[in-house]
Amino acid sequence: MPLDKPKREDGPLIILRGNLAPDGAVAKVSGVKVRRHEGPAKVYNSEEDAVNAVLADEVVDGEGVVGRNVGPKGGPGMPEKLSLSTILVGKGQGESVCLMTDGRFSGGTHGLVVWHIAPEAQDGGPSAYLRDGDIVIVYQDTKESTMKVSEEELAKRHSETALPPHDSRGVHGKYAHIVSSSAKGAITDFWRKENDYS
């Protein structure tokens, strides 16, 4: 198709923004019929905890599963999170449960998924202060990724919440300390000027 006559306005991936992802997040929308999700969050600090909860039927339709601390710094290195989305799809919850993470998914991932939430939780991004039961919204049409938590409440949680320590040993520790946000390419060219990734 010519560039001035595309088959659709957006491609299979769209960038979402909002108070849950101020620097952006990625949503794969190809093959997904649900255009808007709004529901309570279930927050997990590791993929293992989230997988165990889904397998134990602790996650129900309408919820938003949030997996945090698995981004470039938190992983460290953004390990692939294919298992969780595959299990949800296998249980028939691929579009009834929204899966959100500061990590990454495979290109073969199916279902209602949002990844690369930036800034990541490990770096003090808003998802670090998200709690179970907070209402999260993902809306394709407005390219929105938000949470219904007031600025005042977020500030209060910020003062009350201790972020997990960076992995501080060996190569992982070095990587976690110098890697940039996924929104800036998750690169380690730390000697360049801030925000200069040309």
List the secondary-structure elements in sequence, H or E: EEEHEHEEEEHH
Q: Give the overall shape, derived from the CA principal axes.
A: globular
Tell me how many strands there are: 8
Strand count, sense and barrel status of the largest sheet are:
8 strands, mixed
Look at the structure and give the mean pLDDT.
Answer: 87
Strand content: 15-25%
The end-to-end distance, rounded to whole angstroms, is: 30 Å
Number of helical segments with 4 or more residues? 4
Radius of gyration: 17 Å
Please, what is the oligomeric state?
single chain
Secondary structural class:
alpha/beta
Contiguous runs where pLDDT drops below 50 for at least 5 residues? none
Q: Reading side by side through the largest sheet, how are the strands ordered?
A: 1-2-6-5-4-3-7-8
Give the proportion of residues in helices: 10-25%
Lay out the secondary structure.
Blueprint: E1 13-18, E2 21-28, E3 36-44, H1 47-55, E4 64-67, H2 82-90, E5 98-101, E6 113-118, E7 135-139, E8 144-147, H3 151-160, H4 170-178
Parallel strand pairs: 3-4, 4-5, 5-6
Antiparallel strand pairs: 1-2, 2-6, 3-7, 7-8
Task: Write up this protein.
This protein is of the alpha/beta class and 198 residues long. 19% of the residues lie in helices and 23% in strands. It has 4 helices and 8 strands; from the N terminus they run βββαβαββββαα. The chain has helices at 47-55, 82-90, 151-160, 170-178; strands spanning 13-18, 21-28, 36-44, 64-67, 98-101, 113-118, 135-139, 144-147. An 8-stranded mixed sheet has the order 1-2-6-5-4-3-7-8. The longest helix has 10 residues, at 151-160.
